[in-house]
């Protein structure tokens, strides 16, 4: 049913999520990871951003994953972990 709703434009807008909180940011290996999960279909979707200043220029990489969580706190924790994993695997290449 949700497929038909989205196909015909009747899908409801994303549900409200708590406002971004500086406590949901983490410094890691010279990068700043910001968890930004949002509520989607009754659960919280894993999302966030990774930032780093290189040669005086601020770079940002946003990420969104399919993982969903029942609580906002779990989604924040998982999003920060996912950000650390991305940094460990790709480093500054994420900004290319």
Features of the shown structure:
96 residues, alpha+beta, Double Stranded RNA Binding Domain, five-stranded antiparallel beta sheet, elongated
CATH architecture of one domain: 2-Layer Sandwich
Instruction: Indicate the low-confidence ranges by residue numbers.
Output: 10-15
| Shape field | elongated
Number of helices: 2
The pLDDT mean sits at 86
* Secondary-structure element series: HEEEEEH
What is the CATH T-level topology of one domain?
Answer: Double Stranded RNA Binding Domain
CA-based gyration radius: 15 Å
State the name of the first-level CATH class of one domain: Alpha Beta
Beta-strand content bin: 35-45%
**Alpha carbon gap, first and last residue:** 39 Å
Major pleated sheet = 5 strands, antiparallel
Counting DSSP E segments of at least 2 residues, the number of strands comes to 5
Helix fraction by DSSP (H/I, runs of at least 4): 25-40%
Structural class: alpha+beta
What does this structure look like?
The chain is α+β, with helices and mostly antiparallel strands and 96 residues long. It has a domain at 24-90: 2-Layer Sandwich (Double Stranded RNA Binding Domain), CATH 3.30.160. Helix content is 26%, strand content 39%. It has helices at 2-7, 72-90; strands at residues 25-28, 31-35, 38-40, 43-54, 57-69. Strands 1, 2, 3, 4 and 5 form a 5-stranded antiparallel β-sheet that branches. Strand 1 and strand 2 form a beta hairpin. The protein is elongated.
């Amino acid at each position: 049913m949700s497929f038909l709703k989205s196909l015909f434009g009747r899908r409801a807008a994303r549900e409200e999520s708590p406002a971004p909180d500086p406590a949901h940011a983490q410094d890691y290996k010279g990068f700043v990871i910001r968890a930004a999960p949002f509520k989607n279909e009754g659960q919280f979707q894993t999302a966030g951003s990774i930032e780093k200043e290189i040669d005086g220029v601020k770079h940002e990489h946003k990420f969104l994953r399919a993982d969903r969580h029942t609580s906002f706190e779990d989604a924040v924790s998982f999003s920060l972990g996912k950000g650390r994993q991305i940094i460990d695997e790709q480093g500054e290449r994420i900004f290319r």
